[in-house]
Structure formats: C-alpha cells, structure tokens
Design brief:
Layout (H helix, E strand, L loop, with lengths): L3 E5 L5 H10 L2 H9 L6 H8 L12 E6 L2 E9 L4 H31 L11 E8 L8 H15 L4 E7 L3 H9 L3 E6 L13 E7 L1
Helix pairs in contact: 1-3, 2-4
Length: about 210
C-alpha cells in the first residue's frame, strides 16, 4: 500500500516542486514570466522557491510525498502579506530579468492580477496546487487541500478562497466536492505570442 505524507517545503525541494507549481497555471506563468525574456517561467520559479519569502517562496508551500518521492505541492497565504510579498516580487523580478525586461514582467503580472486577484484581508488563499502526472488519481490533490483547510482553521481564518481556470474541469469538480462554491468568473483578455491567459473562477468555502 502506498504511503502518503505531507510536510513543509524546504529549499532543497525547489527543483522537484517548481514544475508542479508551474503546472498549476502554465499559461498564466508563461504569459507573465516567459514572454520576451531571457529566462523561462520554470527557471524563475525554481529560483524563487529556494528563498523563504514572497508568494513563490518555499515557506508558503507544502509537499506531498508518495512512498518517499515528491508527488505534489500546494501553497496558502493571506492578504496580510500583500505588501511584503510585492516588495519581494519586485526584487526577484528585477534581479532575475533586469530593469528593461523586468518592467515588462511586472506590467504583465499586474494585468493577470485583474483575473487572478491576490487575496485581501485574512482570507485563507490556496494556490499552486500541482500533482505529478504519474501520481494523479491517488487523492493527493484532495489531501493537500484538506491539509491547508485545516491550517486555515487553526489560524482562525473565516474563509478559504482559490482561483481555478474555467477550462480546468477536473480541478473545479475536486474543489466542489470539498465544499467550495463559485462566486465569480473573471474574463481574461490577455494573450501574447507565448500564451493566452484563460478565464478564471473564484471559489470560496467558509471555514
């Protein structure tokens, strides 16, 4: 019988979990971080996941291991970190891409935030849920989200919130089975020669 365990992420996980974080929203990541740059979105994520701070820092993430092998990743954070995360992101983007290409990354990131809006207040925001292809259909995504929901309860957060691409029906159905309800669909108008950002659903669950 396969043994599943969930633990906090660490810097040494960066190479293994970066592709899984990327898989949670490849079009959005490519639109922002890969278009017209000298570095791919995947390379940027691997770099930031070696640091503790910011939205893409390892400290926000949990790792699911199946029989001792990394099989999934997910993150949670809240709006009370927004200013701190923004400052970290600016440093990471400008440091990785330089001022000229970095300005384009920042502009595209702000565009995407109108579709995938950052959390506000103390909402318990769940993001970056990714499971390795060979480990899917083992309930790993569900276990990770349940783990993060319990974390939200321990932190006395009133509402869990997430965003999912409208076209991602398997993920939407998983979240509905966990009790999430769709409250809004945000239409995307953002596309470039690298990627097209899909419409997204915002889903919530009282904790």
């Amino acid at each position: 019988m396969s043994a599943l365990s969930i633990r906090p992420a660490s810097p040494s996980d960066a190479a293994a979990i970066a592709p899984l974080v990327y898989s949670s929203g490849p079009a959005a990541f490519d639109y922002v971080f890969s278009h017209g740059t000298n570095s791919s979105a995947l390379a940027f994520l691997e770099h930031t996941l070696r640091e503790p701070g910011g939205e893409f820092g390892y400290a926000n993430h949990i790792v699911a291991e199946l029989d001792g092998k990394v099989a999934g990743v997910a993150a949670s954070f809240s709006g009370d970190s927004a200013l701190r995360y923004m400052l970290v992101a600016l440093r990471q983007i400008l440091g990785n891409y330089g001022p000229i290409r970095g300005t384009g990354v920042i502009r595209r990131g702000l565009q995407v935030e109108s579709v995938i809006q950052p959390p506000t207040g103390v909402m318990h925001y769940i993001a970056h849920v990714g499971v390795a292809a060979e480990s899917r259909r083992n309930g790993i995504g569900r276990k990770m989200v349940e783990h993060l929901l319990e974390e939200g309860k321990r932190l006395n957060r009133a509402t869990a919130v997430l965003d999912v691409a409208s076209e991602n029906e398997p993920a939407r159905k998983l979240y509905e089975r966990l009790g999430f309800s769709t409250i809004e669909e945000r239409k995307s108008k953002f596309a470039n020669s690298t990627a097209t950002v899909p419409h997204h659903l915002r889903m919530t669950l009282p904790l």
